[in-house]
Amino acid sequence: MSTQMRTQPAPQIRLNIVDRFVSFFNPEAGMARAKARHLLSIRRHEAAGRGRRHPAENDLSGTINSDIDAELDILRRRSQNMIGNNGYAGQALNVIANGIVGIGIKPSVVTESKELEAMLLKEWAAWGNRHACDWNGRETFHGIQQQIIRAVFSSGEAIVRRRRTSDGIGLQLQVHEGDYLDSSMSSMIATSDGYTQNGIEYNADGKVVAYWLFDSLETYTPANTLTSRRIPASEIIHVFYADRAGQQRGLPWLRRSYMKLKDVNRYEDAEMLGKIASACHAAFISGGVEGIAGLPVVASDAQRIDRIEPGMVTYLQPNETVTFNTPPHHGGYTEFMASQLRSTAAGVGTSYEAMTGDYSQVNFSSGRMGWIEAGRNYAEKRERTMIYPLNRVWEWFMEAMQITGKFGGTLEDARNIH
Q1: Cβ(364)–Cβ(353) under 8 Å?
Q2: Of 386, 395, 401, nearest to 144 (Cα)?
Q3: Does pLDDT of 234 surpass 90?
Q4: Which residues contact 155 (CB under 8 A, 6 or more apart)?
Q5: pLDDT confidence of residue 415
Q6: Strand, coil or helix: 162
Q7: Looking at the predicted structure, is the pLDDT value of residue 294 above 50?
Q8: What's the mean per-residue pLDDT of the chain?
Q9: Which of 4, 95, 221, 232 has minimal Cβ neighbours within 10 Å of its Cβ?
């Protein structure tokens, strides 16, 4: 028995007029040119294709930081507006904040002395469980953690500023949203001292050395221009989730689902108006008897019927007929909304069931699997978003303990206790 192998014919390389002209004088150069042009025509990745499915405006042309610089303000405003006006967006914020922070992330200390550990945790509880830890006097440290993660979700970033006071251990925390950074402070001209970009000042090595912050955003009037001041980086904790390496500012977590939620709002409004119209019965009366010279007989205003009431009995004129309107009905509302909200939940990093409260399509096993997967997502966000600022706050706390004499070691000893 013989086996015949079928081979695929090699792709033909077509020479255009320029290829043929070059080949006439230098065949090797002509063939190399034609081969290179042929390779360029082969699509390696569909996502890199061109045409109507790939409009050029969807191609980001800059670096991650230049794109953020151009779009952050409008993304922040739209995200905050959606959270304030859309129930699903607000619930997504609640679910993610509670999943990452919960009832508060508490410290644990490991030292060679159990007495020292107990003393530090007692002092921490006395500071963190009182509203005196908040510069505004409203929140405990748990509330401050909630403020941080909510600012990161809605505006992309949070600014935690250390405030030194004469009360207690001399430490209070002030939380700002990202719009307190003065983005107009940008000078990309590198010097021996570094540069400033998007309100953040860097040294010549690219390390953050200071932040330019507004004192308040509430005092702005056309006659009173906002002014910012330089705050050393040692007094600031800049909290955000970095999606890409080298990212310097944070982006709102709702950005991937914003357009979907906007379309869902419009669709729900259209459905609501349709239901209202469907609930309104309209009656059209046509025909009637003719009077002298063919003129229609019109009832007087006292006899004219212009509304329908329960239990009403009325008589029509001869040849009169009544026709009721038939409003259009669109089915599939529940299925369509569910598919759109599943996409929305995936975009913000939670489950459809947690965001909507709809558990009608899950059983115990599938619900538990979804909760486990959501827990992994929250743990990753917690590790990369919250652990760094909490460690920095602990360092500030230990410095305050040493300065006030409640910790007997040196400042360096205090900073090394974790």
Answers
A1: no
A2: 386
A3: yes
A4: 76, 79, 80, 177, 178, 179, 250, 252
A5: 81
A6: strand
A7: no
A8: 83
A9: 4
* Model confidence, pTM: 0.77
Token pair 């695929």 is at which residue? Answer: 8
Residue 349 is given by DSSP the state T
**Is the distance from CB of 320 to CB of 287 less than 8 angstroms?**
yes
Query: What is the distance between the alpha carbons of residues 275 and 261, in angstroms, rounded to a whole number?
Result: 21
Identity of residue 162: R
Long-range contacts, 267-274 (Cβ 8 Å, 24+): 267/336, 267/337, 267/340, 268/337, 271/330, 271/333, 274/327, 274/328, 274/330
Element (H, E) at 32: helix 27-41
Strand ranges of the sheet holding 171-177, from the earlier edge strand across to the other edge: 171-177, 157-164, 236-240
User: How many residues in the chain?
Assistant: 418
Each residue's pLDDT tens digit, 185-195: 876 655 557 88
| pLDDT at site 343 | 92
Q: Where residue 293 falls among pLDDT bands split at 50, 70, 90?
A: very low
The SS3 of residue 263 is helix
The kind and range of the H/E element at 231 are strand 228-232
Q: 90: which 2 tokens? A: 């607000």
- Which residue(s) pair with 177 in the sheet? 158
182, 164 Cβ separation under 8 angstroms: no
Kindly state the helix (H) or strand (E) to which residue 196 belongs, with its residue range.
strand 194-197
Q: Which helix (H) or strand (E) holds 172?
A: strand 171-177
- Orientation angle between helical segments 364-385 and 87-100, nearest 10 degrees: 70
pLDDT at residue 40, rounded to an integer = 59
